[in-house]
Amino acid sequence: MSEKKIKKYESCCDVNGIFKIIGGKWKVLIIKSIANECPKRFGELKREMDEIAQTTLTIQLRELENDGIICRKVYAESPPRVEYKLSDIGKTLLPIIELLDDWWIDYKYKSIEMKK
To answer: Does the pLDDT at position 70 exceed 60?
Structure first.
């Protein structure tokens, strides 16, 4: 593809980068869960999302932490206690997630109306 054609499709919004951070089945649910009760312990997250495998939850939490969306705090206790909370940048996602939720509700309603 020529340089001219590539520039034509460039955007100021890197959708691939956005969905790398919040995409997938669980990440937005994890963010919303932590936002609802902050800080949130691992066991509480696992109970709320009983369909997610423990390994998957661990991986998703690590990715969100590595991307700076959540903060992880480990307490030197026996057994160890780990708490998660939203970082400042993670908190900025909440209005965006709310807008996406509103859009989805509107979309579902309109798509049902169009099928009638």
So the answer is: yes
pTM (2 decimals)?
0.82
Tokens of 85: 């909370």
Q: What is the pLDDT of residues 27-65, one digit of tens each?
A: 999 999 999 988 999 999 999 998 999 999 999 999 999
Phi, psi of 90 (to 5 degrees): -65, -40
DSSP-derived 3-state class of residue 38: coil
Place of tokens 């998660």: 84
> Which distant-in-sequence residues (6+ apart) come within 8 Å of 52 by Cβ?
26, 46, 60
Q: What is the 3-state secondary structure (H, E, C) of the chain?
A: CCHHHHHHHCCCCCHHHHHHHHCCCCHHHHHHHHHHCCCEEHHHHHHHCCCCCHHHHHHHHHHHHHCCCEEEEEECCCCCEEEEEECHHHHCHHHHHHHHHHHHHHHHHHHHHHHC
Look up tokens 């998957």; give the residue. 56
